[in-house]
Amino acid sequence: MNFIAVIILLTIVADFVLHTLADVLNLRMLGDKVPEPFQGVYDTERYRQSQEYLRVNTRFGWITALFDISVLFVFWFGKGFLFLDQWSRSWNQGPVLTGLIYIGILIAFKTILSLPFSIYATFVIEERFGFNKTTWRIFATDMLKGLMLSILLGGPLLAGVLAFFEYAGSNAWWYCWIVVTIFMLIIQFIAPTWIMPLFNKFEPLEDGELKHAIMSYAQSVKFSLKNVFVIDGSRRSEKSNAFFTGFGKNKRIALFDTLIAQHTVSELVAVLAHEIGHYKKKHILQTMIISFAELGIMLFLLSLFISYQGLFDAFYMEQKSVYAGMIFFGMLYSPIEFFLGIFMQMRSRKNEYEADRFAVETTQDGSSLADALKKLSANNLSNLIPHPFYVFLNYSHPPVLKRIRAILNS
């Protein structure tokens, strides 16, 4: 085992230990008393369910993580990467197609192994707590649609990246940066109208009090909005949400049908104001710019390590290749990704506070946003008192109690 292997091994173990420690600390925060702001929203039985929901999901997460690590170590130290490389090369299809075969098999292998866990989470855990509305037919068709999109969109992109690194020499990394950036921008534009409707129905919000209130608010903050869409989230889950996606004429705000059923008009306007706040504060654009910059750094570092012999020795490989180098570099890059992820989550939590303030200032109705957050948390069995270290590692949103205090004090 060389130095590169030791780094990757220690990174994997350290990541598991850190997240397990955070989980343990998080579970120790649980208690029977409903926090004061939620009294009257969370009844005692519902709050008890939220505690149990967290325990069950945390323990299931440990089992899943241990399984994933065990499979990786067995495959790695059993020279599975070498065996698969030799088998892929035996087809004599050239470096790009061989790379697609190699990476495709690894992805398929991981997908098949994770399938029982996905089924259990959906049809046992979510079912037990009254969330699941997904049928076996929807579950299967979602998987098939996801597979087809991966092949039709991801396949050509991966082939292009492999070809650049195979034939473009030292310029490969920034060629890839340009191509992948353009690809991501195109996806952002087409996703709301072409991709997302493959999985859910988006129906324009019907005329009435809610639509009038939303359109009036959008006009008051000079936000161009042709329509608001209702997404049939209830086909899969009782959980509720709202989101903003896309740019320009293709930007789309969608409210889950479950959200509309559970909230008042003023609360829904407040939720929408929060989403518009992200757009007005340029949070979405800033996140994209940072993501593109990170992509460029990653591709540059990849160009430095993709042919490094020590990287291939760490995985017992007998021959170097672009496709295997990409896989192995991804593992070596994980410490950088870990710290970048923490930075992005800290920034995201700050953005959530800003979007909340925007909603309060423009609606002049902080209580409706606070009430909406309370109902969302209760309906989704959210954890109200997460441990600070768990929040630091995992949360892209501030804990709901902190958000509510900030809203009511603004």
TrEMBL record:
<dbReference type="Pfam" id="PF01435">
    <property type="entry name" value="Peptidase_M48"/>
</dbReference>
<feature type="transmembrane region" description="Helical">
    <location>
        <begin position="172"/>
        <end position="195"/>
    </location>
</feature>
<keyword id="KW-0378">Hydrolase</keyword>
<dbReference type="GO" id="GO:0004222">
    <property type="term" value="F:metalloendopeptidase activity"/>
</dbReference>
<keyword id="KW-0645">Protease</keyword>
<feature type="active site">
    <location>
        <position position="275"/>
    </location>
</feature>
<feature type="transmembrane region" description="Helical">
    <location>
        <begin position="322"/>
        <end position="343"/>
    </location>
</feature>
<keyword id="KW-0812">Transmembrane</keyword>
<dbReference type="InterPro" id="IPR032456">
    <property type="entry name" value="Peptidase_M48_N"/>
</dbReference>
<keyword id="KW-0472">Membrane</keyword>
<keyword id="KW-0862">Zinc</keyword>
<feature type="binding site">
    <location>
        <position position="274"/>
    </location>
    <ligand>
        <name>Zn(2+)</name>
    </ligand>
</feature>
<keyword id="KW-0479">Metal-binding</keyword>
<protein>
    <submittedName>
        <fullName>Peptidase, M48 family</fullName>
    </submittedName>
</protein>
<keyword id="KW-1133">Transmembrane helix</keyword>
<dbReference type="GO" id="GO:0071586">
    <property type="term" value="P:CAAX-box protein processing"/>
</dbReference>
<feature type="transmembrane region" description="Helical">
    <location>
        <begin position="285"/>
        <end position="310"/>
    </location>
</feature>
<dbReference type="Pfam" id="PF16491">
    <property type="entry name" value="Peptidase_M48_N"/>
</dbReference>
<feature type="transmembrane region" description="Helical">
    <location>
        <begin position="60"/>
        <end position="84"/>
    </location>
</feature>
<feature type="transmembrane region" description="Helical">
    <location>
        <begin position="96"/>
        <end position="123"/>
    </location>
</feature>
<keyword id="KW-0482">Metalloprotease</keyword>
<dbReference type="GO" id="GO:0046872">
    <property type="term" value="F:metal ion binding"/>
</dbReference>
<dbReference type="InterPro" id="IPR001915">
    <property type="entry name" value="Peptidase_M48"/>
</dbReference>
<feature type="transmembrane region" description="Helical">
    <location>
        <begin position="143"/>
        <end position="165"/>
    </location>
</feature>
<dbReference type="InterPro" id="IPR027057">
    <property type="entry name" value="CAXX_Prtase_1"/>
</dbReference>
<feature type="binding site">
    <location>
        <position position="352"/>
    </location>
    <ligand>
        <name>Zn(2+)</name>
    </ligand>
</feature>
<feature type="binding site">
    <location>
        <position position="278"/>
    </location>
    <ligand>
        <name>Zn(2+)</name>
    </ligand>
</feature>
<feature type="domain" description="CAAX prenyl protease 1 N-terminal">
    <location>
        <begin position="29"/>
        <end position="201"/>
    </location>
</feature>
<keyword id="KW-0256">Endoplasmic reticulum</keyword>
<feature type="active site" description="Proton donor">
    <location>
        <position position="356"/>
    </location>
</feature>
<comment type="similarity">
    <text>Belongs to the peptidase M48 family.</text>
</comment>
<feature type="domain" description="Peptidase M48">
    <location>
        <begin position="204"/>
        <end position="408"/>
    </location>
</feature>
